[in-house]
């Protein structure tokens, strides 16, 4: 825990990856100095068809928002998934819809193009001034 606080003081951002599966526990949200909660792809995959998946992602999004965390949805492959996550005010998405894995040179090109088109996240747009 002390190491995580030191990293945070140095400017690192701390995230819980694959939240909701494996060993991720709700208690981690209170124990660790987190910045970001990444919702596992297992819940995102069927979000447009599965009522239970939608309920879990909605609950995690709400929880993350009220804890002041950035929320990232993993495994977004379809525009319909992105649209649903956007309606939930998920801050960021990650997945093949954005890009397939890239070699370093292509990654730099991709990042430059993205920065040119950057828009505020849903959270930035909804935070009071």
Walk me through this protein's architecture.
The protein starts with a helix and ends with a helix. The protein has 129 residues and is of the alpha/beta class. It has a 4-stranded parallel β-sheet. α2 links the parallel β1 and β2. It is globular, with a radius of gyration of 15 Å. It has 7 helices and 4 strands; from the N terminus they run αβαβααβαβαα.
What are its keywords?
129 residues; alpha/beta; four-stranded parallel sheet; globular
Count every beta strand, where a strand is a DSSP E run of 2 or more residues: 4
Euclidean distance between termini CA atoms: 33 Å
How many individual helices?
7
Rg from alpha-carbon coordinates: 15 Å
Question: Can you lay out the helices and strands and say which pair or pack?
Answer:
Layout: H1 2-9, E1 15-19, H2 28-31, E2 36-39, H3 41-44, H4 51-66, E3 70-73, H5 79-87, E4 92-93, H6 104-117, H7 122-126
Parallel strand pairs: 1-2, 2-3, 3-4
Summary, kept brief:
The chain is of the alpha/beta class and about 130 residues long. About 45% of the residues lie in helices and about 10% in strands.
